[in-house]
Fold this protein.
Amino acid sequence: MKKTPAIVLEVVTANRLKGGDVVYLSSGLTWSLHLNDAAASDDAAEKERLLAAAERSVTEREVVAPYLIPVKRDAGRLTPLSQRETIRANGPTVRYGPAVPDETETLPRGKANV
């Protein structure tokens, strides 16, 4: 059985000016933190309409640097096609914040675990 080729969709992404969060433009032309809320399209005219709306958000100082990214729809979920956008969608790839020793970590000799 031949597999049907996946249709490459695109969504508009940007960073929220206040706080820098990665955001996605929804079909209601509002910004969401969740990729699955994004308006995904393979239609050139629709993508231009979404980009124009995103540029208005730049003018209104809501977001910076909007652009289209390719995604695929798999089992009803949107997934970025590039590693960069996967990282942007899912968050940092390393632990951040205050260092908290793992219970399995051993301390150097002579150091007390306080």
